[in-house]
Specification:
The chain has helices at residues 25-33, 85-96, 108-115, 121-132, 136-146, 149-173, 181-202, 207-213, 227-235, 278-293, 310-315, 336-339, 354-369, 380-401, 405-423, 429-436; strands at residues 2-6, 13-21, 44-49, 56-65, 76-83, 101-103, 215-220, 253-259, 262-268, 296-302, 320-325, 343-345. It is built from 16 helices and twelve strands. Strands 3-4-5-2-1-6 form a six-stranded mixed β-sheet. Strands 8-9-7-10-11-12 form a six-stranded mixed β-sheet, sandwiched between helices.
């Protein structure tokens, strides 16, 4: 089957690029242009006509990439025309009339590249991350993964496990033969080295996932403290409704920000208080859930009411900044006990000390993202496979110590399999759908 899709963004633009990939690509170009395919990888000016008619659709460029030397590993072409919806629709309609041609699914071009051995699974994921990157640090991370550092590391660890497995299987195949002492020592040392490496990779404070998904900041606190006003100020627009009526915010309101190149997701939450209203109670539960997930909590309180409930005290225990709002209404100094907390005294209404709060947030971001090690884990699935690999390796060591080689070998095979799943070295059909469905159509 030959697939086609618009690879540039939809809407009006100077140029639109339509990709075609599959065995029938050469025929698609012949039918659209009335001519044979041009020289490989040479942009060639052609007129594109509706199939079986002489009606001109547009004039543009065509590039021909014969397989396997193409992005997908198949015969492939890129058609560059004017970025008009009418032009793109007319080309799509004409290609759809050609036998064995259909519109591509999300990520299908990159999926073909993976299946045809042009890229590994980590590179496929990094391409998706690069396309969706919104900040400089996200772009840098995606490029690093694309360059293959993480793939090389995971493949290196996998090769070490395969070498250990070969020694263990040799012992199983020839039970009467004793393994030399140096090989027994090598098995133990290599397995312990891999365990230490994986533990070190896992001990990364989830920086890679935070960069990819965004640093999560939750604005929490009692009703009418100024949480929604703070969200609007940070967003530089009216994201949330601000009202004197307590309990206006019932649901979680999110906005995505770029703070000094760092991706940030700021959530405004329902005011925390005792309530009999069922909807408000659900909103408060969502607030507390969001607090647990947050990388940083901004606990906003009213300077006129600094009596903290047990819930608010709990929120301030870890990864939190106390934001005392409405400081313009203060008539006396605040309690010395509260002064000891990591706090900022602000007034959103009078625009007082908000720069100090933003500086505290930036410093928190920088401290979170600073790492001397290369980031290898960028998705939860990588972490899960490494954790399972580690568990099987530890089981292998226990069974190997008591010379239960058959069961030890099985744990080692499973550990190797989980490492392979990260880069796509083994059968991974069950996870391909979830990965490539995140792509845009045409990639």
């Amino acid at each position: 089957m030959t697939i086609y899709a618009l690879s540039t963004g939809p809407g009006i633009s100077g140029i639109a690029v339509i990709r075609v990939s599959g065995n029938n690509t050469k025929n698609v170009i012949k039918l659209l242009t009335g001519k044979d395919v041009p020289e490989p990888r040479v942009a060639t000016l052609r007129k594109f006509n509706k199939i079986n008619t002489s009606e001109l659709i547009d004039e543009g460029l065509v590039l021909w990439f014969p397989g396997p030397e193409s992005y997908t590993g198949e015969d492939m072409a890129e058609i560059q025309v004017h970025g008009s919806k009418a032009v793109v629709d007319a080309l799509h309609t004409s290609i759809s009339d050609i036998e064995n041609c259909r519109l591509a699914e999300p990520g299908e071009f990159t999926k073909l590249a993976f299946q045809n051995g042009k890229i590994n699974l980590l590179k496929a994921e990094s391409i998706a991350d690069l396309i969706s990157s919104e900040t400089e640090i996200q772009r840098q991370q995606a490029i690093k993964i694309m360059n293959g550092k993480s793939s090389d590391q995971f493949n290196f660890l996998r090769e070490k496990l395969l070498k250990i497995l070969s020694h263990v299987e040799a012992k199983i195949d020839f039970p009467d033969e004793d393994l030399p002492n140096e090989i027994l020592k090598e098995i133990k040392k290599s397995s312990e080295d891999v365990i230490k490496n994986i533990e070190k990779i896992l001990n990364d404070q989830k920086v890679g996932e935070i960069i990819r998904e965004g640093f999560k900041i939750a604005i929490l606190g009692p009703t009418n403290a100024g949480k929604s006003s703070l969200l609007n100020y940070l967003s530089n627009r009216d994201v949330a409704i601000v009202s004197e009526i307590a309990g206006t915010t019932r649901d979680v309101i999110e906005t995505h920000l770029n703070i000094d190149g760092y991706p940030v997701i700021v959530s405004d939450t329902a005011g925390i208080r005792e309530s009999k209203n069922e909807i408000e109670k659900k909103g408060i539960k969502l607030s507390l859930n969001r607090a647990e997930e947050a990388d940083l909590k901004l606990v906003v309180v009213d300077s006129k009411n600094l009596d903290f409930t047990d819930v608010l005290k709990g929120l301030l225990k870890e990864n939190a900044i106390l934001v005392i709002n409405k400081s313009d209404l203060l008539t006396e100094d605040i309690d010395p006990k509260i002064k000891k907390l990591d706090h900022v005294l602000i007034s959103i209404k009078e625009n007082l000390n908000i720069d100090e709060l933003i500086l505290k947030i930036k410093n928190n971001l920088k401290n979170k993202f600073i790492t001397s090690e290369d980031i290898l884990i960028t998705r939860e699935r990588h972490r899960q496979h490494l954790e399972q690999c580690l568990e099987h390796l530890k089981n292998f060591n226990k069974k190997n110590e008591v010379e239960d080689f058959d069961k030890a070998a099985e744990d080692l095979r499973l550990a190797t399999k989980h490492l392979g799943m990260i880069v796509g070295k083994v059968d991974v059909d069950e996870i391909l759908g979830s990965i490539f469905n995140d792509f845009c159509i045409g990639k």
